[in-house]
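Take the subject:
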Amino acid sequence: MRGASRPCPTVGRTPLWELCGTEGRVHVQDHCYAPMDRLLERQSSIERGLVEKHLAGQESLVLYDITSSYMEGEYAGSRLVLFGYNRDGKKGHAQIVFGLVCNAEGCPVAVEVFPGNTRDASTVKARIDQLRKRYGVKEVILVGDRGMITPKNFADLKDQEGLRLISALTHQEIQDLLEREVVQMGLFDERHIAEVVDPSDKAIRYCLCRNPESARRETGTRDALMKRTAQVLNRIASRKKRASPQRIGAQVGKALVKTKMGKLIHWSVTEGRLEWRWKEDRWKDEQALDGCCIIRTTVQAGRMNKQKVVDTYKQLALVERAFRNIKTVQLEVRPIHHKLDDRIRAHVLLYTLAYYLQWHMQRRLRPLFDADGAEKNRFWTVENVIERLKSIRRQTITVAGVPCRIVSQPDTDQAQILDLLKVKM
C-alpha cells in the first residue's frame, strides 16, 4: 500500500499541520516523508548558508566532535546502522554515528551521519576538506579532542596550508615528552599556564596546566578500578584447584580488559597458580599526572596566546552541550523509526536544525537567564520558557451557533519572553 494512503497518526494532537498551512487529510508520505526527502536534497545549500553566516572571516575557528545514537529494531541492508563503540555505554545495540561542526560559540553549521562502526579520527580529514572545498573556508583553526586529533592525524595535518590545530595530548604522549625532557613535571601548575616550544618543530607549542578537580576525579576513578582489579585477581590466585597457564591467562586477561589496569600489573603463573603485584613505579608516575593537561597547537603565538589556546580547547564543551540537547535534554533524537538510510540522515539533519533554532533562542533569552537566580534558585530554562508559552492559545468557540475566535493575551512574563525572541502576536 502506498504511503500516501496512510493518514498521519499525529493529526488532532498537534497544531503543526495547521501552522504549516496543510489543509484536509494529512498523509505520511506526502506530508512527512516527502518534505524530509527534499530537506536532505538541500542539505549542502543549507549548510553553505550557515557556514557563510557563522564562519565568516579570514580565519575560522571550528569545533568538531562526533557521538553515537543506538537503534532498536531490524535494519536489514542498512549501511549506517552497524555495531561499534557506543559512546553512551549502551551495549548490545547497533548504532549510527554523527559528527557535528560548530563555530567558536557552539552554533552548529554542518552535520554528517556515519556508519555505526566509524572511528572518531577517521572522519577528520573529510570534514576539513568539506569545509574548505565545498564551503569555501580558506583558513581553519580546528579544535578536536584526543580521540579526534590522534598522533597520526596530527602528523598528517599539521603542515597543511591554511590549517591550524588545537588538541590535547594523551597521558602516553605526555609521558613521551617527559622522557624526552621537552617538559618537566614542575611546569604543571594550578594557577599559571606554562608554554613550551617543541625543539624538533618550532611550529608546535605546548600549553601546560593542572586542574585540581580533574586530579581528584582521575585519582578516585583509578583507585576504584585498582580495587576492583585486586579483588578479581586475588580471587583467581586464592583458588585451591590448580589450572593451566592458558586458562589462568584467559581469566586474567578478561579482568584486565574490563578495568584497563593491565599497564599497572605484573603477573605470572607458577605451578598452576596466579602470582601478581602492582608496578609501583608506573602507578606513581600515573598518579603524578592526574589533573595534568597539555594542549598542543600549531597556531602562532602572535595570533593566540597560551591562555587563549587553553580557553579555546575548553570550548569543545559547547559541542558536548549540543549533543546533550539533541540526544536527551530536550530534543531527544531517539527513537529513530526510519528504516531507509537517507531518511535517517534527514532525521539527524532535522534535529540539528532544531538545535540551531534552540541555540539562537538561548542567545536571545540571555537577558532573562542572566537576571535569574543561581543553581537551585534558578527558575528560567529553555524548557520552562516553552512551557510558559504553551498557555498562549488561539481557539474558536461556538456560542449559540455563532463561532467566536479567541486569542489569549500574554501576561507579563510571556510578553517579556516574546519581546526578547522578537516574536509579535
Notes: The chain has four domains: 3-40, 42-212+292-362, 214-288, 375-421.
